[in-house]
Amino acid sequence: MKHTEGKWEVTGGVEIRSQSGLLLATMHTHLESNQVPQKANANLIASAPEMLEELIEVAYGLSHIDTEWARERLGFVHKVITKAEKGTE
Questions:
Q1: Helix axes 48-62 and 35-46, enclosed angle (nearest 10)
Q2: Is residue 3 part of a domain?
Q3: Distance (Å, rounded) from C-alpha 48 to C-alpha 56?
Q4: Does pTM top 0.90 for this prediction?
Q5: H or E element: which one contains 51?
Q6: Which residues of 46-73 are buried (b: 16+ CB within 10 A; e: fewer)?
Q7: Disulfide-capable partner of 16 in 24, 26, 29, 85 (CB 3.0 to 4.6 Å)?
Q8: 21 within 8 A of 27, measured Cβ to Cβ
Q9: Is the domain of 41 the same as that of 53?
Q10: Pairwise CA distance, residues 80 & 29, whole Å
């Protein structure tokens, strides 16, 4: 994987840091009313490594189901995993 490993967490309001303390991103807010969506965005970004791990498990499970629906979902899941791991669309 090419992303910073370990659990990511939101610190200092809207900063995203790795477990080792590396600053990964800062969500800038200009208006007080904008802080709630920015904090939600920061929480979403911080949960990305955990979501990727779970998505890989979902892909494994879907690969054992032989239905059109599962094959379609598996295609979408693989696309998202590839995008996350390689930074491509």
A1: 50
A2: no
A3: 12
A4: no
A5: helix 48-62
A6: bbebeeeeeeeeebeebeeeeeeeeeee
A7: 24
A8: no
A9: no
A10: 28
